[in-house]
Design a protein that fits this description.
By secondary structure, the protein is mostly beta strands. Among the domains are: 153 residues, Single-stranded right-handed beta-helix, Pectin lyase-like (Pectate Lyase C-like, 3 Solenoid), CATH 2.160.20.10; 112 residues, no CATH class; 56 residues, no CATH class; 131 residues, Jelly Rolls, CATH 2.60.120. The strands form 12 sheets. It has a 17-stranded parallel beta sheet, with no helix packed on it. Strands 2-5-8-11-14-16-18-21-24-26-28-30-33-36-39-42 form a 16-stranded parallel beta sheet, with no helix packed on it. An 11-stranded mixed beta sheet has the order 32-35-38-41-44-45-47-50-53-56-59, with no helix packed on it. The protein is elongated.
Length: 702
């Protein structure tokens, strides 16, 4: 039974009871009790209070009052409207024209043509415990230009428009513990209204749009709400700023929490999970704080598009496709101290000019970082699977030997070797990176084992084991890379190559032992899905392995560890880098095998006459052989060495090489991955008299 909790007998001086007609109190004395009346009349208000205060309207049944409202309070204050059944009217209960301090409690305001409970220009009212559901054309509860009202413990379900609507400068209202489900548009909608508190409501299952929607509204507090299973967004902010969105659950929506053209909001402690697209999304504008949220099992956990200067800190982001995605000129954001784990594609994805971001002190577990068209980012002190994330940009002459993931952006002459790069987004990724070496790494269970994109050219990829990745190796718009003696085993696609033309076997014949027999041949890679035959049993397939428009002409029949390569009869540093300068190199060569030397080739910089003027080779301070350049003849990059000399395995030889115009240089102090041995730099003195200890000439001795 509905009881009037606000009834005070001492104030009642007139009782209007058990009538079957409309009731109007117009400028009459106050302190009336209107109860148990039945009003069912067209074109009239059921109960109308005009400039009338301190009345008790209790347990009336009012229907089909289509003039204005079932119960109308016009410039009427301190009335108690409770336990009434107001249905099938134009508006159910209407407070207007500065009706203040009324209590509207425990009423049923359903199936009305317009709105269940409507406040216009009315302040300081309490709307508690009502059922304002199933209203036909508009909303369950609406406030228009109404301030300081309390809307608590109401049910507003299945309305055509909004469950609860605040509009036109309805400020400083409190909306607490309401249930708004299955409404046609939004569950709770706040438009052009500021400083409201929306706390501990259930705003779910909106048919068209959002659970909670803020439009051109500022300084609101949206806290501890459940906004689940809405057709569009759980919580949506449009052109709204300085709001607090805290400790809400926004799950199973299209977007969980969505900010568009909204700035300076604090999004903290929310659970935005299991949404179709994004857990938390920021579009345009910025300066928002996204902290200590959980975003899991969405398409992207946290998504930024053209959004700048946001702080994204301390979030748990897991089991999404991309964990945190910065897209389309999202710049100057701080991504700090997040835990990012087990996302399907990338932990953090910087794409399409996501520049000048600070990515610091994040912990990646079973995913990592990916970069596409993004520059000038600062990426420091991040951990991938308990090892450092090594991110290098605009860097040269570095050897990487300790990492859980390696990303190289616009780098030259980087060596990445002897690493286990597994269970991350990309094991080793090269973006516009050249003249680098990726060797002897294990890359497994990644999206891409090894990834080269957009003019990552002239790199050497050798002796790596790429297994159980989505793509063993992926190349886009990358050219002239030498890729050989790698294992590509049981990847979903062993190789992906688009708009790329690379070399998939050794450029020189290699002496190797296979099944206890010695052979000499060019050597390619092992592909677990290669189906060719080996008629002569030399371990090299008789037919090539097709890769896009190019081929591995010497595919291996078994993994590389079944081939024992013999030491080369050539000492070859491979190509170096540009720019360089002529000067005098002094250093040491230590062969890994006996090498007969009668000629030296110098790698020139493209478009130059790079060459060597002279060479001298010493053993124990004794001159063993020398050679002098003879000018721009047909083979001007070569110098004949006399007499021909045998450089012995393990013996150290001093070289003095004077270079001419722009030969290639390797910018390291020691180069252990040269074919046939090790070469070091003691000193390089350039033509201007400057000295360096990390300039090795790019040469081949044969």
């Amino acid at each position: 039974m509905c009881t009037n909790l606000f009834y005070n007998e001492s104030y009642v001086i007139n009782i209007v009871k058990n009538k079957h007609a409309s009731i109007s109190l117009l400028n009459e004395s106050s302190y009336n009790e209107i109860q148990n009346n039945i009003a069912n009349s067209n074109n009239l208000d059921g109960i109308r209070l005009y400039s009338h205060s301190d009345n008790n309207i209790l347990a009336n049944n009012i229907a089909n009052s289509n003039k204005e409202a079932g119960i109308l309070c016009w410039t009427s204050s301190a009335n108690i409207v409770t336990c009434n059944n107001v249905k099938s009217n134009d508006k159910g209960i209407w407070l207007c024209n500065y009706s203040t301090e009324n209590i509207i409690a425990n009423n049923t305001a359903k199936n009305n043509t317009n709105t269940g409970i409507y406040l216009k220009d009315s302040n300081d009212n309490r709307i508690n415990g009502n059922d304002a559901s199933n209203n036909v054309n508009y909303n369950g509860i609406s406030l228009n230009a109404s301030n300081n009202n309390e809307i608590r413990n109401n049910i507003a379900n299945y309305n055509h428009g909004e469950g609860i609507l605040l509009s036109t400068s309805s400020d400083n209202n409190t909306i607490v513990n309401n249930t708004v489900k299955y409404n046609g548009y939004h569950g709770i909608c706040i438009m052009d209204s500021d400083n409201n508190r929306v706390i501990s409501n259930i705003a779910s299952n909106s048919v068209k749009y959002n659970g909670i929607y803020l439009n051109y509204t500022n300084n609101n507090e949206i806290r501890n709400n459940i906004a689940n299973s809405n057709n569009d967004d759980g919580i949506d902010l449009l052109s709204s700023s300085y709001n607090i969105i805290a400790n809400n659950t926004a799950s199973n929506n299209n977007y969980g929490i969505d900010l568009r053209y909204s700035s300076n909001n604090n999004i903290t402690g929310n659970n935005a999970s299991n949404n179709n697209d994004y857990g938390i999304s920021l579009w345009d504008f910025g300066n928002n704080t996204i902290t200590n949220n959980t975003a899991s099992n969405n398409d992207d956990g946290i998504y930024l598009s053209s959004s700048i200067n946001n702080n994204i800190t301390g979030n748990i982001v897991n089991n999404n496709n991309d964990g945190i995605h910065l897209f389309l000129s999202s710049k100057n954001n701080n991504i700090v101290g997040n835990t990012i784990s087990s996302n399907n594609d990338n932990g953090i994805y910087l794409s399409l000019f996501g520049n000048n971001n600070n990515i610091t002190s994040n912990i990646f577990v079973n995913n990592g970082l990916a970069v596409l068209y993004a520059y000038k980012n600062v990426v420091t002190d991040n951990i991938v699977n308990d090892k450092p994330l090594v991110y290098l940009e605009d860097t040269s002459d570095i050897v990487v030997t300790d990492a859980g993931q390696v990303i190289l952006v616009n780098c030259t002459n980087i060596t990445v070797k002897n690493l286990d790069l597994s269970n991350t987004s990309v094991g080793v990724g090269l973006w516009e990176t050249e003249d680098s070496i990726i060797s002897n790494n294990t890359v497994s269970k990644n999206n891409d084992g090894i990834y080269l994109t957009f003019h990552s050219n002239n790199n050497t990829i050798t002796c790596n084991n790429a297994s159980s990745n989505d793509d063993g190796i992926s190349l886009t718009s990358s050219y002239n890379n030498k890729i050989y003696l790698n294992n590509f085993i049981n990847n979903i696609d062993n190789v992906y190559s688009y708009n790329s033309n690379n070399i998939w076997n050794s450029t020189e014949e290699i002496i190797y032992t296979y099944n206890s027999k010695q052979y000499t041949n060019y050597m390619g890679n092992y592909w677990s899905n290669y189906t060719g035959s080996d008629a002569n049993n030399d371990g090299i397939g008789d037919t090539s392995y097709s890769i896009d428009s190019v081929k591995d002409y010497s595919p291996l029949m078994q993994p590389c560890e079944n081939y024992i390569a013999q030491a080369s009869s050539v000492f070859d540093t491979g190509a170096g880098t540009y720019p360089s300068i002529q000067g005098t190199h002094e250093g040491k060569i230590k062969p890994s095998c006996d090498i007969e030397v009668s000629k030296m080739y110098t790698y020139p910089c493209a478009g130059t006459g790079g060459h060597t003027k002279s060479i001298k080779l010493y053993e124990n301070d004794d001159l063993k052989a020398s050679g002098t350049w003879t000018g721009y003849q047909e083979d001007w990059q070569n110098i004949t060495i006399t007499p021909a000399v045998t450089l012995k395995k393990g013996q150290e030889y001093l070289y003095v090489i004077e270079t001419g115009s722009y030969p290639q240089i390797i910018h390291v102090s020691e180069y252990k991955d040269a074919l046939g041995g090790t070469i070091t730099c003691d000193e390089f003195t350039d033509v201007n008299g400057r000295t360096y200890d990390n300039r090795i000439p790019a040469i081949r001795l044969s």
